[in-house]
Specification:
The chain is mainly alpha-helical and 378 residues long. The chain is built from 13 helices and no strands. The chain has helices at 2-28, 54-72, 78-104, 112-132, 172-197, 203-224, 227-230, 247-268, 277-294, 301-304, 306-324, 336-342, 347-377.
């Protein structure tokens, strides 16, 4: 608990007080946002606003995580470091994309396939680490499900025993390959989902805060109901416990990133004085994907990150419909938040309403997470 409180406080203080200094530095370096000509006209006033703000909260959350553990005198854990591996790795991919945009003074940096390739490399590294370090049982790789009951905490208990969600049932070799593919798909999808949602001042930042808050709760709950703690006290709680490695440190990790984002949001909300850029959005998506995999709640991420799914889906639907109908569109512009802007909604109105939608998805996700446990307890 001390590590969580101190880590979140340090992360928040870092971004709250130092973000303006970073914004001035980025402006001097010429790291200003380039605005698309075909976007909403109101966005052209944002041209030149410092970008790559993801650097600020990546540094802030990492510092908070380290200081929190030092103050609490507890060791760093593998799961926490794995999440930050994704945050930093995908942040580097995003930084390259942002840097190319500012250098070329155009809204296109890395090509789509080049960006995905970078994400796949980072996600594959994460999977390799997970497969080479055991869970607390000393046998099962940290990313694997230990059994089909608790491998993935899904949103309805009726499907919690689906065997294909437990990769160990296919053997070590095939299971390892399937896990690597599974985790890569989740991480790349989550990373791109947050990236697509990052189009309005504070939209992705606020929505991610809600999603990460869910994983603070999930980490705490899994810690209190952890098999490796409770089985020593009562062997009859096996059907109610979670076989998750160091869930409390997952909560600490989520809290540090959340604290850093809250401080960053102070400067990122409309009118934004700094943008997170792909540096931040790809990193945040990676954090959500990593937290979901390590807490074995991959399917629940579909609900918790429901807003990101809808926004990304609007882009896919728009492109498919455009090609099928040879030029017709469903939305005035995709992603979906730009559609509402062009319909006349004020930017702050779109952002707040999308935050509310995100919060409702998170509330449903956390509720279903708890309901799944209650269904096993009854």
């Amino acid at each position: 608990m001390i590590a969580l409180l101190v880590g979140a406080a340090v992360s928040l203080a870092f971004t709250l007080f130092l973000t303006p200094s970073f914004a001035k530095l980025f402006r001097r370096l010429g790291w200003g946002q380039f605005i698309r000509d075909d976007g909403p006209q109101s966005h052209h006033a944002k041209r030149g606003t410092p970008t790559m703000g993801g650097i600020v909260f990546i540094l802030g959350s990492g510092l908070g995580y380290l200081v929190g553990h030092l103050v609490a005198r507890v060791p760093l854990t593998l799961v926490g470091l794995m999440v930050f591996f994704l945050v930093v790795g995908l942040g580097v991919v995003g930084f390259i994309d942002d840097f190319l945009k500012t250098r070329r003074q155009r809204s296109l940096g890395l090509t789509g396939w080049a960006k995905i390739a970078g994400q796949v490399v980072v996600a594959s590294g994460f999977a390799a680490i997970a497969l080479n370090f055991p869970d607390q049982d000393g046998l099962t790789p940290v990313g694997f499900a230990a059994d089909s009951k608790h491998g993935v905490e899904v949103f309805i208990s009726a499907v919690r025993d689906i065997p294909w969600l437990n990769f160990m049932t296919f053997g070590v070799v095939i299971g390892a390959i399937l896990f690597a593919l599974w985790s890569t798909i989740i991480i790349v999808s989550a990373s791109n989902g947050v990236n697509v949602a990052d189009g309005l001042d504070g939209l992705a930042t606020g929505a991610t805060i809600f999603a990460l808050a869910a994983y603070i709760f999930i980490g705490f709950w899994q810690y209190n109901q952890n098999c490796y703690n409770n089985l020593r006290l009562d062997p009859h709680v096996q059907d109610l416990c979670y076989q998750v490695r160091d869930p409390l440190d997952l909560a600490v990790t989520a809290a540090c990133i959340t604290g850093a984002l809250i401080g960053f949001l102070w400067w990122n909300t409309s009118p934004a004085q700094i943008f997170m850029g792909d540096t931040g959005s790809l990193a945040l998506g990676g954090a959500l994907g990593g937290l979901a995999i390590l807490s074995h709640t991959e399917l629940l991420l579909v609900i918790i990150g429901g807003l990101f799914l809808i926004v990304t889906g609007s882009v896919i639907v728009q492109r498919v419909y455009f090609k099928i109908t040879h030029g017709k569109r469903i939305f005035l512009m995709s992603p979906l938040h730009h559609h509402f802007e062009l319909k006349g909604w004020a930017e702050i109105t779109v952002v707040v309403r999308f935050w509310l939608i995100s919060a409702m998805f998170v509330a449903v996700g956390v509720g279903l997470f708890y309901l799944e446990w209650v269904s096993r307890a009854s």
